[in-house]
Write a structure and sequence with these properties.
It contains one helix and 39 strands. The chain is mainly beta and about 500 residues long. The longest helix has 4 residues. The protein binds (Z)-L-Arabinonhydroximo-1,4-lactone. (Z)-L-Arabinonhydroximo-1,4-lactone binds next to strand 7, strand 15 and strand 20. GO terms for molecular function: hydrolase activity, hydrolyzing O-glycosyl compounds.
């Protein structure tokens, strides 16, 4: 018999710290969004495998103030989504104020309320209700507090419950009331290669908690598995009684040392129960599928900007002020107006989406007008590669840490132009620091040989003319640090420009 299987990650691209809940046959999933606005992407699925983004929970500045001082990888950390008493709750931390808050909604697609703030120590807040209707909020360090779920006020605690087996950063707690037991699922070891998921249980949320007989219940630390950094997990029970774990992990790329370029992604793995304790892993690239199976149509590669609003995948660093963008000024085009002169500092106009595949291509139709505008692959203000057009010249610029360099230039005809960025897995072995050269023997890039190579082209008469190829390692978490992944998008840093469409396609043979 052909057993259906699914491929991990189930939500590729920078979608870390996943949390999931089920209402009837429907699942909802949220992820961290850090310095990006709108924040906390929310997805719907009928089978835990196929997810469609239905919105962003925090889509108003009143819910998500992210002033320019918010650093890259600051902002919104680790959300939890739960459904109780006919309401959806999403609770998270805004690291700018280092405070936890929750928002509620009757429908997961929104509108979501303004924040209700809590005064509790720690991050990674979780919500759970007991049979008496009491609400428990558990935060990192693994302390639980009984709260009033309308005002957010603390009523009892915080009570330290269980801080794990000794790994650093006991965090990402989730409490589950299953049968007679309260299970505490938590992560420890830090979000990198030592990441692990551990379990304890008690008869009451107040404790005392006893650790599971085998901890961690999931880790890939010290293994050669292609999926690494497994942790920050949540669990959900399917209608058929099977349990599933949603977690973050990374797909590391390239040769030794490996690089992580897409950030931490969302994976799915089955949970087994042994003597009343959950066990999970290893997390495979392919698993046997859950019983229900509801594939979704492949989303169109091209956004024509013909809709009344921006699709929920489009995000901007910190803010997307009214007046900085428009879909109506030039119908069928996304018009952007510069709010800051450089991508190197917060406050600029950028609209992008997560890069979700190691091998991919994106193309953009840009009318630069008299502005300075283009496309960028960014990890943060100090790590980005840009292809921009200004006064009839296309240029490729690389910003890597303290260094900024224009690596290629070429004249382009006036009027709209098509820009192409192609990311390919590098197949050079061993890594080479020598990049491609042009007809005069001059280097056209800053070297290839890392995990991937980003090629920047301008289409001339429908044929891409390559300006530069750049080494992808400098846009990796290992170089830039931080909690996010690559975001690819459109920007303007001078005047105004309009974009007719943006097309994103996976191109690779590698499983993505
Ligand atoms: C998050 C913490 C973690 O709050 O990384 O992997 C932090 N886990 O739980 C930021 O994502």
């Amino acid at each position: 018999m052909n057993v259906p299987s699914f491929d991990n990650p189930v939500v590729p691209g920078f979608h870390p710290d996943p949390s999931v809940c089920r209402v009837g046959e429907d699942y909802y999933l949220v992820c961290s969004s850090f310095e990006y606005f709108p924040g906390v992407p929310i997805f719907h699925s009928r089978d835990l495998v196929h997810w469609r983004q239905i919105g962003n929970v925090l889509d108003r500045p009143s819910q998500l103030p992210l002033p320019p001082r918010v650093p890259a990888s600051g902002g919104i950390y680790a959300p939890t989504i739960r459904h109780h008493g006919g309401l959806f709750y999403m609770i998270t931390t805004n690291m700018d104020s280092e405070r936890n808050f929750f928002v509620t909604a009757e429908r997961p697609g929104g509108p979501w309320s303004d924040p209700v703030w809590l005064d509790l120590p720690g991050i990674d807040p979780d919500l759970a209700w007991d049979d008496d209707g009491e609400c428990w909020c558990t935060t990192s360090g693994n302390r639980t507090t009984r709260i009033d779920p309308s005002s957010g006020k603390a009523l009892e605690g915080p009570i330290p419950i269980w801080s794990g087996t000794g790994g650093r950063y006991p965090e990402a707690p989730h409490l589950f009331h299953i049968g007679e037991w309260w299970y505490l699922l938590m992560s420890e070891g830090g979000t990198e290669r030592a990441h692990a998921v551990s379990i304890a249980r008690a008869r009451s949320p107040r404790g005392p908690f006893e650790p599971g007989p085998v901890n961690p219940i999931l880790t890939h630390r010290g293994t050669a598995r292609p999926i690494q950094s497994t942790g920050h997990a949540d669990m959900v029970c399917a209608p058929d009684g099977t349990w599933w774990m949603i977690l973050l992990a990374t797909r590391n790329h390239g040769f030794t040392p490996e690089f992580q370029v897409l950030g931490r992604e969302t994976f799915l793995t089955p949970v087994r129960w042994a003597d009343g304790w959950p066990v999970a892993g290893p997390v495979e690239e392919r698993h046997e599928a859950p019983a229900s199976w509801h594939p979704l149509p492949t989303p169109p590669a091209r956004d024509d900007f013909d809709a009344a609003g921006l699709a929920p995948c489009w995000i901007s660093p910190r803010a997307r002020p009214d007046g900085s963008w428009s879909l109506t000024e030039r119908p069928g085009w996304l018009t952007l107006h510069a709010t800051g002169p450089t991508l190197d500092r917060p406050g600029h106009t950028f609209v992008g989406r997560r890069q979700q595949h190691h091998d991919c291509r994106f193309r953009v139709r840009l009318d630069p007008g008299s502005g300075r505008a283009g496309v960028s692959v960014r990890l943060d203000e100090a790590h980005h590669y840009d292809l921009e057009v200004h006064e009839g010249v296309a240029s490729v610029n690389a910003r890597i840490g303290p260094l900024r360099q224009t690596v290629a230039r070429r004249a382009v005809p006036p009027g709209p132009v098509t820009l192409v960025v192609e990311d390919r897995t590098t197949d050079l072995l061993p890594p080479s620091l020598v990049g491609p050269v042009d007809a005069d023997g001059e280097p056209v890039g800053v070297g290839v040989g890392g995990p991937d190579t980003l090629g920047f082209s301008v289409e001339v008469d429908g044929v891409p003319a390559l300006l530069a190829e750049l080494d992808g390692r400098y846009l990796s978490t290992e170089v830039a640090t931080g909690f996010t992944g690559r975001v690819v998008g459109m920007y303007v840093t001078e005047g105004s420009a309009a974009f007719d469409w943006f097309e994103y396609e996976a191109t690779g043979h590698a499983p993505d």
